[in-house]
Amino acid sequence: MTTFERYRFTPWLLLAPQLAIVAVFFFWPAADSLRQAFYVQDAFGLGERFVGLANFQRVMASSGYWQAMSVTVLFSVLVAGGAMLLALLLAVLADRVLHGARLYRVLLTWPYAIAPAVAGILWMFMFDPVLGVLTHVLAGFGVHWDAQLHPGQALALVVIASIWQQMSYNFVFFLAGLQMIPTSLLEAAAIDGAGPFRRFIGITLPLLSPTAFFLLVMNSVYVLFETFATIDNTTLGGPGGATRTLVYKLYEDGFVARDLGSSSAQSVLLMVLVGALTFVQFRYLERRVQY
Amino acid sequence: MRYDRPLLDRLTHLLLILGVIVFGLPLWLALTASTHSAGALQSGIAPLWFGGEGLANYWQLLSQPIAGLGVSALRLLANSLVMALGIAIGKIAISLLAAYAIVFFRFPCRTLCFWLIFVTLMLPVEVRIVPTYGVVARFGLIDTYAGMILPLIASATATFLLRQSFMSLPQELFEAARLDGAGPLRFLKDFVLPLSKTNLAALFVIMFLYGWNQYLWPLLAANSPEHATAVISLKNLVQSTDTLPPWQLATAMAVMTVLPPVAVIIAMQRFFVRGLTDTEK
Amino acid sequence: MATLTCRQLSKTYPGDHRAVEALDLTLEAGELMVVVGPSGCGKSTLLRMVAGLEAISGGQLIIDGTVANALEPARRGVAMVFQNYALYPHMSVFDNMAYALKLQRRPRAEIERRVHEAATLLGIDALLERRPRHLSGGQRQRVAMGRAIVREPALFLFDEPLSNLDAALRVQMRQEIRRLQQRLGASMLYVTHDQVEAMTLADRLVVMREGRIEQIGTPMSLFEAPASCFVARFIGSPAMNLIPVKRARDGAHLCARLQLSGDPEATARAATLGLRPEHLRLDPQGELAGTVEMIEPLGVDALVHCRLPEHHEPLTARLPMTALAASGIRQQGAIRLAVDGPLHLFDDQDRRLDHAARLTPLPSLFAI
């Protein structure tokens, strides 16, 4: 590959803005997190002292952290499962239609443009205890709905809002994946005697599995970070921590309780978690070359 | 593999239309609620059809300071626009230069630079939120547009997409241009930019949505209402009082907040789909 | 019009892979020199070093008396026609051709004039407003050449420019390049792997193999006196027959009853005997007797693949269809051929032996 190999200075000039911003606003804070995770600040914020792994031990020993962890995992499973199943169903349907396919695509993808914060508000309105449409529908079934009081209902509220938002993202990818499956494969299977259902199970699904795996990871990342806004606008992590995810807890400990050591340790743990997810993602993407 | 199955076709359309309705319902209800008066809303179930107070509600938000915030919705939307454009343009600009350097030059530590940028790919600002606030505060950038924008630019997604896109430009094109006498800046201006137009547009759509919809970081970085964005202001309307929230205003604000990004996504559907599937792969 | 001289020119890639090794070459002004060889022989690397697209590892590159090793590509006075044409997809044909001149900040009127002149020369004036994607393969090829001509370069470089065209168009463009070269009197360095293209175009031909020059000369001199088995196999279609010579106490034999005689030096050192398929004719008294394995009719002539006794290598003869029909020769039947042209002898290093020799049938009395 030939390049502008004679220019020694130019590439640095071109890289400088990005390197500077990444250094100041990524590596510096990340390094700070890493350092703070091993220190404890005194009560007045005047001095600090090295405590080794004590912050981590404190975090790991607190039941609050593990509650947030299990909330996050449950949240991820529900959102990923719900949003992916819905998206797959709608993508298969949209892939089938000949007329109006573009219109359906637009009408099913626009929720992606909605901020998670707004998604939370919109669904909170639907589930408002006094005038929510869905609250009244549920009351008709004998369900008394108040997300402020019921932990399960609070989680359901943010899960539904997140599924609604994330479905469109998954839909785009599933539809793209479906459209990339070579027609010749499905035709070959049809000639081999496979009916529509067998073709879907035997050919379409396996060929979509890389997309599905990718979306699984991306949905988990979405739940980890983006749902902060949904929660902060609806349930505020409550009731009783039922909707307090890892990032929400990190925010509370860092900015509300001002516990720098603990929040830094949580930051580092979160980075490790996301790093692991990324690593798994890349390993998987490497392997999928066989398709 | 499509056969003529009229019944199945009709069922498909039916299910899709059902999906469209279900996914549209939350926004529809917000739209209708925003056209009723506070009193009408308090009298029972949220209305499914429009009322007559729409103009009044929206006008109140746009012209008068919002209670508990002190600035009007106009200011909030303007702030959102500045932040979204700043993030989209800033990120594309610095990523464009960096990707160009990485693809078209050979220099010592090139691989190291690549990895330094690569590491930022999957770690959003939320994981390092506390120290990032510290750094930005140290530079005195809290409550400035720069402070709201810069930390969100420090990531590699755009650099990656552009790197992929540059590497797919034919090598012979580059060589022909060099033989014709094009230097680095010429080549960037005359070839790389015009040939990457589609990718840049796609990237712009994704980054604009990303910037407009940010929540946690502007919540921290914009302390004063003068810099607050539309997205973070909603909480004030919904959770400001112990009494019933002023839903007619909250839903109107939600509709206004949602309008620009939804318009972008619909108008630039082609670029949006491409940008989404490209940035994440 | 310029001269090009390479002195000990070398290209070494990391890992000590030598793409071009100590190459000496001079291209005279106004000459069309074709570099030919199998893929991986270093011919493209040579061309790209001349263009300045590949850094030179050793030796000197002299264009018109100036050492050009460190010159930027655009300052070498060379223009290149690429294999895939490398037309700028977002520019019209006019802008494609004008781009280099615009960068040189030529006056608008001069650019217009030069582009139109080149376009007229190539018969593409009607296409100037089109985008490359709306052109056919042959038209793209012309635009690529036009882009080179407009610059009025001292030296044209061609990197397999015809390999993406279909056979008929290739013949036509070949003739056009030749005509153009003669009309412009331009110096051209032309790289190809197609030996027919090489033979028909070249003033002089350079055959390369594994980064080295195997032979330089006019196409006919290479055809008539290939310096090695490699050149012999490469130049000429169908390829020259190369048959190993057997050694016995009484000298060199081709087969049991066919002795190699002539210059004692030649008969003593010959390891391989080369025979052009065109230099064999049907003759009931011919010295070569074999069996026919396959007949491939080409129209006027046919290729007859025979097998000689005691040899694995097939012997191919190019024979007129009429003679073949008259002789009644058929597949799996016997055939006798006479040598009707020069014999090429090569030593055990595959190098040419320039000595006269002939094949002498031994009387069957002495048959072993």
Name the features.
heterotrimer; A: mainly alpha; globular; B: mainly alpha; MetI-like fold; 15 helices
What is this structure's SSE topology?
The complex is a heterotrimer of chains A (291), B (281) and C (368).
Chain A: H1 10-36, E1 39-41, E2 48-50, H2 54-61, H3 63-96, H4 101-109, H5 116-126, H6 133-140, H7 151-180, H8 183-191, H9 196-225, H10 227-234, H11 246-256, H12 260-287
Helix pairs in contact in A: 1-12, 2-12, 3-7, 3-9, 5-7, 5-10, 7-9, 7-10, 8-9, 9-12, 11-12
Chain B: H1 6-33, H2 38-42, H3 54-63, H4 73-104, H5 110-118, H6 129-138, H7 145-153, H8 157-167, H9 171-179, H10 184-195, H11 197-212, H12 216-221, H13 230-239, H14 247-267, H15 269-279
Helix pairs in contact in B: 1-14, 3-14, 4-7, 4-8, 4-11, 11-15, 13-14
Chain C: E1 4-13, E2 17-27, E3 32-36, H1 43-51, E4 58-63, E5 66-67, E6 78-81, H2 93-103, H3 108-122, H4 137-150, E7 155-159, H5 167-184, E8 187-192, H6 195-201, E9 204-209, E10 212-217, H7 219-224, H8 229-234, E11 241-244, E12 246-248, E13 251-255, E14 258-262, H9 264-269, E15 272-275, E16 280-282, E17 288-297, E18 301-307, E19 314-320, H10 321-327, E20 334-339, E21 344-346, E22 352-353, E23 357-361
Parallel strand pairs in C: 3-8, 3-9, 6-7, 7-8
Antiparallel strand pairs in C: 1-2, 1-4, 4-5, 9-10, 11-15, 12-13, 13-14, 14-23, 15-21, 16-20, 17-18, 17-20, 18-19, 21-22
Helix pairs in contact in C: 2-3, 2-4, 3-4
Domain ABC transporter (chain C): 4-235
InterPro entries (chain C): AAA+_ATPase, ABC_transporter-like_ATP-bd, ABC_transporter-like_CS, ABC_transpr_MalK-like, ABC_transpr_MalK/UgpC-like, Mo/tungstate-bd_C_term_dom, NA-bd_OB-fold, P-loop_NTPase
GO molecular function, one term (chain C): ATP hydrolysis activity
